[in-house]
Design goal:
Blueprint: H1 2-18, H2 25-38, H3 49-65, H4 72-75, H5 80-97, H6 105-112, E1 116-120, H7 123-134, E2 145-149, E3 154-159, H8 171-181, H9 190-206, E4 214-217, H10 218-224, E5 230-231, E6 237-238, H11 242-255, E7 258-262, E8 266-271, E9 276-281, E10 286-287, E11 289-299, E12 302-313, H12 315-321, E13 328-332, H13 333-337, H14 344-360, E14 370-371, H15 378-382, H16 391-407, E15 413-416, H17 423-426, H18 430-435, E16 439-443, H19 446-463, H20 471-488, H21 495-504, H22 509-516, H23 520-527, H24 536-546
Antiparallel strand pairs: 1-13, 2-3, 3-7, 4-12, 5-6, 7-10, 8-9, 11-12, 14-16, 15-16
Domain HTH cro/C1-type: 498-542
Protein name: XRE family transcriptional regulator
Organism: Neobacillus notoginsengisoli
């Protein structure tokens, strides 16, 4: 009996030394071995799958190699890799089995089939998300605090780990939650901003009233971020590692510690599109999100992680996500899938553009350029330092980010306005005196512009008394107008006109240049004003291309 006990001790010691990446495994096996030792003839208790696998592979090795169990400590480490390869899949299986299943699988799968998804886009929403992503909280106060100072709203956000504890069942579960919220201030980053977006997106999709709770599962976020798991038949992935799930729940816990207060006497909801202002009475600190309950995963009666919860936005945030004052835009799904560390600047720029495009939607003012440098410039938006010592490196980084967004379909195209590369050789201070002062045009993809056109059409239909119109007469007038316009309109060749026509036909530079019959570099330089006197042959080609029959022009012209 003493020899058997010694072998059991060797098992536990081996588990600790050979599976250091799975803490708690040794304790779990110890509990199982104790129960097995207490079993008599009934044989009713079944140990964990991982312990079964461990015993099976040891038995197989000892039989094949004719090894003695009493000498296990002399040979077991020689087969370490073989044993790990055999047992680890069973360990992972157990851990995945202990996690509750998401209620949002169908919704998440539906969202994954879209390129752009509806997300919060109010000014306060965007500024809060930006504050979280850059961790702009000042910690030299009782509560880490961030100030949001804008013309239409001034707000304070604080990180507090009190007053928003979910309904829990035991002291062990309370400790699990406290362990997460204790890391709140160090968890404010771009991944936390992603979780802010994801919870808001899922809530907007499901809420039928402002106080509705929804289920949120860590796997929902991992799927939307396209972290690799094991794919189910429905396309929804599961079997994620514990660390991946813990990282998500740590960020959610951080969000529940954020409280917001509006500093002015009244909170103004500004509808930029309709030029309307609605005021609410001053509010005290309000939680960003409210938890109702959490679901704790267990293994062998021990809590191993928090993977699911019931959650809703606080009263203040809910006003921006639901009802008549909802302010939403389209966020590229790819934004959530960029790496939150290596591609954090991609995320920040994509979020900013989503917010800007919602603002510019009313007047279809998408071609208004963006500054590169300065407080309102794109470098500051992304958090990239304007380091004059490394001007070329900053410029390359900036251009690579925009190129990646274009390749991924987050934007359709981008271009400088008037920046001449030859200035780099002529002016040693080109970075601060020219490039930082320059602007870029960023053209949104069709998903954004088509959505804007559809919304405008709905508004126009609702504002007209179409029920009383004579559609036969309307059709006749439209036909006559079309004939007249196609016979009279001639476009002059100018850089502005050719760019507008190209954009209206949804063509990139290379595609348009190919249709015209000129080099794409020639077209690019002409649009940017670098070619002041094009050849007559190229002028004729561009004029002919611009005035093709049955092609959209969409710009004001003179006959």
């Amino acid at each position: 009996m003493s020899e058997l006990n010694e072998i059991h001790k060797k098992f536990q010691e081996y588990a600790t030394n050979t599976f250091p990446d799975y803490p708690g495994l040794s304790a779990a096996w110890k509990a199982d071995i104790k129960k097995l030792k207490q079993e008599k003839s009934e044989n009713t208790f079944q140990p964990s799958q991982s312990l079964k696998a461990f015993l099976v592979i040891l038995d197989k090795i000892s039989n094949e190699q004719n090894l003695n169990w009493q000498d296990i400590d002399s040979w077991i480490y020689s087969y370490k890799n073989e044993i790990r390869d055999f047992v680890i899949p069973y360990i992972q299986f157990e851990r995945n089995q202990s996690a509750p299943i998401s209620h949002n699988q169908e919704l998440v799968t539906e969202l994954l089939n879209q390129s752009f998804i509806e997300s919060g886009s109010a000014l306060l929403y965007h500024k809060l998300r930006e504050t979280i992503s850059k961790n702009d909280f000042v910690v030299q106060t009782e509560y880490p605090t961030a100030k949001i100072q804008e013309k239409t709203v001034q707000a304070t956000a604080q990180v507090r780990d009190d007053g928003n504890t979910p309904h829990l069942l035991s002291s062990e579960e309370i400790q699990q939650w406290k362990n997460l919220t204790a890391q709140a201030i160090t968890s404010m980053d771009d991944l936390t901003a992603d979780i802010f977006d994801i919870i808001s997106i899922l809530w907007m999709k499901q809420a039928s009233h402002k106080d509705q709770m929804i289920n949120f599962h860590t796997d929902d976020a991992l799927n939307l971020r396209q972290v690799q798991g094991r794919k189910e038949l429905s396309g929804y992935q599961t079997s994620y590692r514990k660390k991946e799930r813990d990282d998500i729940m740590k960020r959610l816990a951080a969000l529940t510690t954020i409280w917001i207060r509006i500093e002015r006497d009244n909170l103004k909801f500004v509808d930029v599109e309709n030029n309307e202002i609605d005021e609410l009475e001053q509010v005290q600190f309000n939680p960003l999100f409210i938890l109702d309950s959490i679901t704790v995963a267990y293994r062998d009666s021990k809590p191993v992680g928090i993977y699911e919860c019931k959650i809703k936005p606080g009263e203040l945030l809910a006003n921006f996500l639901y009802g008549s004052k909802k302010s939403s835009g389209l966020l590229a799904l790819k934004t959530l899938q960029y790496n939150p560390v290596k591609q954090k600047f991609h995320k920040r720029l994509a979020r900013y553009l989503s917010w800007q495009w919602r603002i510019r939607q009313k007047g279809a003012d998408y071609l208004r350029p963006y500054s590169i440098g300065g407080d309102k410039g794109l470098l500051n938006v992304m958090g990239i330092e304007e380091n004059t010592r490394y001007g070329s490196r900053v410029r390359d980084q900036f251009e690579n980010i925009l190129d990646t967004l274009q390749q991924d379909g987050v934007i359709r195209e981008w271009l400088y306005l008037g920046f001449d590369e030859s200035i780099i050789e002529k002016n040693k201070r080109w970075f601060e005196e020219v490039w930082l002062l320059n602007k870029v045009q960023i053209i949104p993809p069709d998903d954004i512009t088509e959505s804007a056109r559809e919304n405008q059409l709905v508004l126009e239909m609702e504002s007209q008394q179409y029920d009383e119109m004579n559609f036969a007469a309307l059709l006749k007038n439209m036909t006559e107008s079309e004939v007249a316009s196609t016979s009279e309109t001639i476009l002059e060749v100018t850089p502005e006109n050719i760019r507008k026509v190209r954009v209206s036909r949804n063509l990139k530079l290379a595609a348009a240049a190919k249709e015209i019959g000129i080099a794409h570099t020639t077209l690019s330089r002409y649009e940017n004003g670098k070619i002041l006197n094009p050849t007559q042959a190229n002028l004729n080609k561009m004029k002919s291309w611009m005035n093709q029959p049955n092609q959209p022009k969409r710009i004001k012209t003179t006959s």
